[in-house]
Write the structure tokens for this entry.
Amino acid sequence: MATDIVMPQLGESIAEGTVVKWLIQPGGAVEKDQPLLEVETEKVALDVPSPASGILAEVKVQEGATVPVGTVLARLETQPAEGVINRVGGVGVRARQAGTQADQHYSPAVRQLAREHGVDLAQVTGTGESGRVTKKDLLDYVAARPGPVTEPPQTAATPPAGAASRGIAEEIVPFTSMRKTIAERMLLSRRTSAHVTTFFEADFSGIERFRAGRTLTYLPFVINAVTRAMKDLPLLNASWQDQGLAIKRDIHVGIAVALDEGLLVPVIRRADQKGLTQLAQEVADLAERARTKRLTPDEVKDGTFTITNHGGFGSLFSTPIIHQPQAAILGVGSVQKRAVVIDDAIAIRPMCYLSLSFDHRIIDGATADRFLAKVKQYLQQSDWEKFL
């Protein structure tokens, strides 16, 4: 019996994807849920798992090809096929060589840099997940190796006019298709929405006391406060449509996860119906699987509001760009102890700056400020026990 492998829908506004690499070669055996191929979308490359165990009988779309969502990429033979070398428990298994460079899983950005610098990736020691080679590993290898560095092909880049005569030393790194798409999406969002950002500061003292002895990060508390504020001001959970505003009944919160290759926004569905413990578990699970490219297509779809925790890198302020077609995005800065005035006295408190970028076509400034004031109010409460 044959099963078609199709280009998945990896987001509500994504119409196509690029086949980056087949992780199983034609004629090779694959187990159910084992990564079958790597697909590049508008922001990041994802591993697509096999829907069943079987033999990859035919590849219809080759590496590097960009095709619409729903295109048949390959055909999986789920019954034992001819030429099977061994059989275990009735499942056909083909012998595979282990440890070869072809079996390594390198990101598109790493492979691009390796080509530019003439590096054999098999010679680079990886420090990433499961020994994965990161861009830093590759650049450190290039900086440390002896002898002249292989220059990129001259046709790959043209220096600006007059650069040589001015004595400017530079290296042109060609754009990856992912970086080009990210740029296009960011510009599209800026052109589509009337971006405005408002800032508030919240005291996390109550959260700090409650977290003592618990393995909870700040993010579940922020998600809880956001979903409660949305119940008060549902306009923040809307999107612009030609016929009017579409106010979503369900609250699906996207959490921005930074990767080496770009950015991914997995979605916590019906976040308003989940307690702090469940939110913490889902955030950790989604972030880990985003970094190891094990998310399913449905887990990056249908978000209605996005939170970006830029404070994890030490940032205090941010003016994030709205994730279309949503109405707003919340930036959460680093929580730092600062001197503040409370009841005419100076006190030390763990403080955090919150930034809300919103679409002024949908939301007026007063509504945005009321929403962020509600988020602040809920974050500064002391009774968190009932939300576990």
User: Anything to note?
Assistant: The helical segments are 108-117, 135-144, 163-166, 177-192, 205-211, 219-232, 276-291, 365-379. Confidence is low (pLDDT under 50) at residues 81-103, 148-156.
